[in-house]
Write a structure and sequence with these properties.
The complex is a heterodimer of chains A (451) and B (314). Chain A has 451 residues and is of the alpha/beta class. Chain A has 18 helices and 13 strands. Chain A folds into two domains: 191 residues, Periplasmic binding protein-like II (D-Maltodextrin-Binding Protein, domain 2, 3-Layer(aba) Sandwich), CATH 3.40.190.10; 188 residues, D-Maltodextrin-Binding Protein, domain 2, CATH 3.40.190.10. In chain A, helix 10 crosses helix 11 and helix 11 crosses helix 18. Chain B has a two-stranded antiparallel sheet. The chains are: A alpha/beta (451), B mainly alpha (314).
Chain lengths: 451, 314
Amino acid sequence: MIQQQVPGMSRRALLKWLAVSSAGVALAACAPGVAPGTASSAESDAAADVAAQELKLLVCCYTGPETELRDAYNSEFMAANPGVTISMELLPAGQNYFEKLQTLIAAGTVPDLFDMWEGYIQPYARNGALLNLDPLLEKDSEVTKANLLPAAIDAAAYEGSIYALSIGFMPGPISLYYNVAHLEAAGLATPSHDWTWDDVRAAAQALTKDENGDGNPEQWGLAFDLWFVPWLYWIWSNGGDVFNADQTQSTIAEAPAAEALQYWADLVNVDKVAVPPSMLPAMQGSLNGFITGAISMYLGNTWDVGTLKEATEIEWRAVLSPKAPSGGRTWYEHFWCWAISSQSGQPDLAWQFAREFVLQRVIDPATPTVPPLQQLLTTFDTPTNAELGYTPLIELATQPNQFRIPGSGDKWDKISGLIQAELDLVFIGEATAADATAAAAPKIDEELARG
Amino acid sequence: MMTTTQISHLPAARTRFWLTSRRREALMGYLFLSPWLLGFLIFLAGPMVASLYFSLTEYAVVQPPRWIGLGNYARMWGDDLFFHALEVTARYTVVSVPLGIVVALGLALLLNQRIMALGIFRTIFYLPSLISGVAVAIVFAWLFNAQFGVVNYFLSLVGVAGPNWLGSPRWALWAFVLMSLWGVGGNIVIFLAALQGVPRPLYEAAALDGATAWQRFWRITLPMISPALLFTAIIGVISSFQTFTQSYIMTGGGPANATLFYLLYLYKNAFSWFEMGYASALAWVLFLVIIICTTLLLRTSARWVYYEGGERNG
């Protein structure tokens, strides 16, 4: 036999091992995480114990004051429940919350508990994403179906079962905020919750000042954001509706709806006392315009209170938004609620967190909401809420159909966009409300007819 | 470290691997390619196949897809918003792409001079194209502000009352066209390279023959840089058909759907309206539209694109 000297590691072998290693690293990076149930039994027991103690939350559209209140509550909950860790993800206001939620659900990584809004509950429940809360409501001694207000049930129900627990209602646009100094200077009486649209119109005419006559008032009488919340309130308060009773056809082109929309459009285009909605971005929104003193009255929402409380530039007050000339007043029901994921591994812990959050009225100091439970209505009767003009809501909240959602489930987003596109033309004076609603109605019917 | 070993007298076939050296080299090549291949399969090819499948289903994301065949494609023919979004995007493309090319070429011609601090000027013109689309959109929302915006301020200096750019259905799309000029820096760099590749003797010969500056530009410069023009036109068309960030951030598609770009409409279907299946079909139609536009550009290029060193293409 011949003995031969052989190198220990050739360049080719080194390159080969480097290639194999890089491919291995790439594969490892692409490998999915350990799926539930695939770990060894001892590991999975330990993992389950740890997972059972972590409650994941997804919250949308927070404000600074609300976040502080939430953090404080989370700390108290963890202190009262040793071993429980709460991890809360906050998303800013905008349009990406439900996109993110959908993605998390599709990926199977949805949090245990998350914000849910009116209009989304039914489609998410229909698609099996939400836990049916009926069994939990039946076991609970305080938070029961019998104690929930009608509006808390209507907006959260799907096929007779409850799928979300209301934190509170935020009817919108609930308030007519007004600048005290402006009204005093104009010699106007203080608004009341019995004001009608005509009273607001008269006050806005008195408050609008265009001293240099350039068509751009230095002080506007009124402002409102143009989106579906105010225009639903106008339509419903005037006795109209977007859909018929079984939501198979649109009724927006009928007189009560069209007249309501034309009334408010005339405030912009005819009376020229309301800020054209297309000009509001220049003011950074109607709330900001009101805070800076450029606007005397603002048709706003409960969540504006937090920002208004921090504004020191003006002295403001609020009353309930005005009634239609016919006396009707129906608000859009912003329905802020908790929903438990149907994929959650700890529904009881999630329920405990949610029910105590609701019972303790955690975020009310920052964002007043109408309580969803009968026994909590008295908590709404506070000096602060009285100052904001909310006291009549205590009685109104017990009445059906005072707060409404428009219906049509997951189609509402698109339908509201179809209507909005037509109304944009009305509020810049390029179309009448009658023409716009007549143009929108067949498109809405087509959308409703599509399965 | 050297080791010794004994060479066996066994037949070669029983000691060699089945891989020949050629195969081994090929295998190593693929191993090195594997990270990219995996990325391509996982992040591009895979989603494309999935998208094609979803386009044939009714898919709300939060529930499993339901097969409906070509239902989504059939639905498009009756969808007014689909045609409207396509029209908005097409109008934007037809105006912004040629305008962007003209402005970029003009700036490139200016930057192709021998002046002091030329490099600094080139950098200044290129830098804006590097800034994130979201940041640019937010800044331009302020620039086009009807009351406080810089654009209307400059117009007022020449006695023109600026419109409510983003609040008017008539002007909103023009605001986006103007905004598209912000990103001409990339095209400027391409044209600069093309201009510097034009042989100087051509200009000298033309000057000797008495050609004017315009004639030298039209007869020499443009033909010589026509491949770059074709490239920027194709890239511009592809990019403008995928406009999304600006309308999403600045107008949300309004006012009155005046800025409802195709990709924004697709996005709304996918993530707001529980119509991922229909959105997938829209994506494939967009793909076809872009393919058709690109093919048309390439087919017509034979008439006006000059490739140095050979016959005209086609």
